[in-house]
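Illustration: ENOX2 protein.
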Amino acid sequence: PADGGRNLSLDSIPMGLPMSDPTAWATAMNNLGMAPMGMTGQPLLPDFDPALGMMTGIPPINPMMPGLGIVPPPIPPDMPAVKEIIHCKSCTLFPPNPHLPPPATRERPPGCKTVFVGGLPENGTEQIIMEVFEQCGEVIAIRKSKKNFCHIRFAEEFMVDKALYLSGYRIRLGSSTDKKDTGRLHVDFAQARDDLYEWECKQRMLAREERHRRRLEEERFRPPSPPPVVHYSDHECSIVAEKLKDDTKFLEAIQTLLTWIERGEVNRRTANNFYSMIQSANSHIRRLVNEKAAHEKEMEEAKEKFKHALSGILVQFEQIVAVYHSASKQKAWDHFTKAQRKNISVWCKQAE
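Result:
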């Protein structure tokens, strides 16, 4: 896979122990509560009875057999549908009984990259733990307890899901049947301060990126700043005076005039020029009043037009409702079907 970890799908790994050791294979299948089967599918022990209340010689039902319609528990999409035996260099992992419910897990902590692994063999070493769980991805650290559990920290969060897939597997070191060399793995999410700190740092980084993106978006849609107003001079004064006489450039010129006055450009030398510009601005008042009166007249005409159009619409509505009422009278109503009466009643309510 792209993440560099070894895939847990074991198509390339032999799915049985060597036939030179059929007893070990039978013991493993007996531990799982399943009839021991050879590599060819034939029973190694024809009279096997796993004490599951089944008839002697009949293997237990596999929930994955076609036609039974039993849905297996949900598993990660890149994991094999049926758990198989996993062979490692120093140990062997036997899958849990498919009849049992999936192992329970605690609530996943935010940014979890660390798992708790319990049920390890007493003789299990850190090297064996690494050998088993490095198949799930890059292992950053292993903190092993003196008892039969440890904590494993992975490089990425998705590797934790692959490690949880191994929960419930029985582990056996080599071919030994000693109790100290066997165990049943229990893998669960673990709370780690390192994981929480990295997750919080990542959230803060994402928040900074979001604020930066939002700021760029706001700046992109912010209207451009108005151009700076030129400083007063006799030449610029003459230009503004000409613009004040032009209706199309009046707004720009009046803003410049206002800025000059607020800046304190008016003095004894420039007072006459400013007075003439103010006089030009005053001459536009009559034009603006006439425009306002014209717009008010257009508004009144539009109101009258709207009233006439609305009265015509209401007259038509009244006529339609009158048709519904006439159709609802006894002499016409009895001739309509039940569905037609229902539609007419609905239409009448809507129109009213």
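Reading the tokens back as a structure: Residues 234-314 form one domain.
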